[in-house]
Write a structure and sequence with these properties.
This protein is α/β, with parallel strands linked by helices and 295 residues long. It has a single domain, classed as Metal-dependent hydrolases (TIM Barrel). Helix content is 40%, strand content 15%. It has an 8-stranded parallel beta sheet with strand order 1-2-3-4-5-6-7-8. Helix 2 packs parallel to helix 4. It is globular and about 50 Å long. The structure holds zinc ion (ZN). The site of zinc ion has 6 residues, from loops.
């Protein structure tokens, strides 16, 4: 989630979420293979979850990771992943939600204990989104850094990938990972750097997940980043309902739309689309443990 002010509490059950007040994007051309959406917010999409997943499957997207950003949405994500075979969850306190999440040290510890408990569940396959956002001022940088470090520990304790939200904070994110020691698996969600930063992340073995932003006209730097990293360190995502890829900008996003982002990534890498689908699927299996479905 990129908007940090005042989240909607998810509606009970798996009906339509609040949405973002924009019309749904039309169905994309199906992919020649299957792929996954490594980051979305099913609780915020104004369609019933079952319908969102059916549209995704029609485009070739057979698995999605839905992400919680505060305690209510983290609980919802874990419940949704328990209810739907195609859905996996990630849980954390979003950097823009950290100031609101707790007023005292005791509350902070209680919230982190709840996140750690949810992160240990079999259907929860990543700790995130957590990290730093210096673009918004929803929480003071030192507060964000404290929560980020605490989530790094939870990822290590649960041996699950750390899913990072990094907006205008590249240097501090990399410095904290180096100082505290990065978990075995690190994913940068909605990667927003250039080819130089991408190469540094790849050298550290970090995985970069590209959102619809890579399809935007002014994103030549992002496409260059997508071209320099090994395909084994690449994922594709929507961050739905936000960041709808071309040609449907201005419409509400949904997991099906990641098909357009996968095609743009294949073009940026001058790679066959079906081949890239197969690599992204294998990366998803490796990172999120889809193959070993112990739910
Ligand atoms: Zn997000």
């Amino acid at each position: 989630m990129t908007e940090g002010t005042g989240r909607q509490v998810p509606v009970p059950g798996f009906g339509p979420g609040a949405g973002i007040g924009k019309p749904q994007a039309p169905a994309p051309e199906p992919l020649p293979g299957t792929a996954l959406d490594s980051h979305c917010h099913l609780d915020m999409i104004d369609l019933p979850v079952a319908e969102t997943l059916a549209q995704a499957r029609a485009a070739g997207i057979t698995r999605v990771v839905t992400v919680g950003c505060d305690v209510p949405s983290a609980r919802w994500a874990a419940d949704c992943a328990a209810a739907f075979g195609d859905v996996y969850a990630a849980v954390a306190i979003h950097p823009n939600e950290t100031a609101r999440a707790a007023g005292t040290a005791a509350e902070r510890d209680a919230v982190l204990a709840e996140i750690a408990g949810l992160a240990a569940l079999p259907q929860v396959r990543a700790v995130g989104e957590t990290g730093l956002d210096y673009y918004r001022d929803s929480a003071a940088p030192d507060v964000q850094r404290d929560w980020f470090r605490a989530h790094i520990e939870i990822a290590k304790q649960t041996s699950k990938p750390l899913m990072i939200h990094d907006r205008d904070a590249h240097a501090d994110v990399l410095a904290i990972l180096a100082a505290d020691g990065a978990p075995d698996q690190v994913i940068f969600h909605c990667f927003s750097g250039d080819a130089e930063l991408a190469a540094r992340c790849a050298a550290a073995g970090y995985v970069l997940s590209f959102a619809g932003t890579v399809t935007f006209g002014n994103a030549a730097g992002l496409r260059a980043a997508a071209a320099v990293i090994p395909a084994e360190l690449m994922l594709a995502e929507t961050d739905a309902p936000f960041l709808t890829p071309a040609p449907n900008r201005g419409r509400s996003n949904a997991p099906a739309q990641v098909a357009n982002t996968v095609r743009a990534l294949a073009a940026a890498r001058q790679m066959d689309v079906a081949k890239l689908c197969a690599v992204i699927e294998a990366n998803g299996e490796r990172l999120f443990g889809f193959g070993s479905d112990s739910r």
